[in-house]
């Protein structure tokens, strides 16, 4: 009997995007592209420029790596324009000026790697829901809720998880009642962290130890988001945990924990410490008592369900000297860069990088379309 070839799964890897995390998204995409087995997957690499143009790009992961301290990006000149409509009857197509559109055909699943606004916040998830295309990751609501640190705090508080005291300053507060907004923050204890509510990769975050610096720190955060969250600093170890949905539909499972220690002149795990400077020590697994690790892992799964996450997420915590587990953030599209903790935590849990990527694609394909 002749052997029949198994058709490959057609995966559109979408990366770049309009947020300040454009370059980090490109690095994540390079890692995933490198991990996709060409015997199992046919890859359609789609980049989105910082201006929002979609282009079909070269899928060579080496073009998406940090080289000599230079971060990669998607340029409109690197590929042909791509159109992806919300009409489920229409296929992905390339539109060259003055030429008949070239139909690329349907894709089986989309792997969005768009960190930050216009990708991690429910926007592309809504487009893909309208188009009826399966995709890796959380749906519209969970993506939007986890992207907004203020909304996340409300949901996880309802689930009984411990968080740092915080204050939210919205655009209206800042515009019409700035003094009262700033005064409300002074009920917190220094140091405090001032963050854009809907950004990641530590972009726009300031740590302040003097109230005289508060107004400028809020202004810096507002360059990225008109909504700002100010959190009281927690004296503790920075511990992270990866969560995966089970393919059989049962509750989520957690990886081993990891710990981040920042060395040198960095006050916290900021953008440069994460991606450019060699100033961090990463312990995978974290050197924690088994009982504390188990509480972190349980809390990670509770947070995952509280926000309604799907497929995967990275949950960040502080562990205090007394052993308290304090939630920091939820990331529905965690980094997949070569140094990212999410794949490293799962590797330490027995799931190698290529299998992790393949598992996420299988999980996405198995999900019910529409309301879940």
In short:
By secondary structure, the protein is of the alpha+beta class. The protein has eleven helices and 16 strands. The strands form three sheets. Strands 6-5-4-3-2-1-7 form a seven-stranded mixed sheet. A five-stranded antiparallel sheet has the order 14-13-12-15-16. A four-stranded antiparallel sheet has the order 8-11-9-10.
Q: Which properties best describe this structure?
A:
single chain, 372 residues, alpha+beta, Rossmann fold, Dna Ligase, domain 1, 3 domains, 7-stranded mixed sheet, 5-stranded antiparallel sheet, 16 strands
Write the layout of secondary structure elements.
Elements: E1 9-16, H1 22-35, E2 41-48, E3 54-56, E4 80-83, E5 92-94, E6 102-105, E7 109-113, H2 123-131, H3 140-147, H4 149-158, E8 166-169, H5 171-176, H6 178-185, E9 192-196, E10 206-208, H7 214-222, E11 228-232, E12 236-244, E13 253-262, H8 271-275, E14 280-283, H9 290-307, E15 312-320, E16 325-331, H10 341-348, H11 353-366
Parallel strand pairs: 1-2, 1-7
Antiparallel strand pairs: 2-3, 3-4, 4-5, 5-6, 8-11, 9-10, 9-11, 12-13, 12-15, 13-14, 15-16
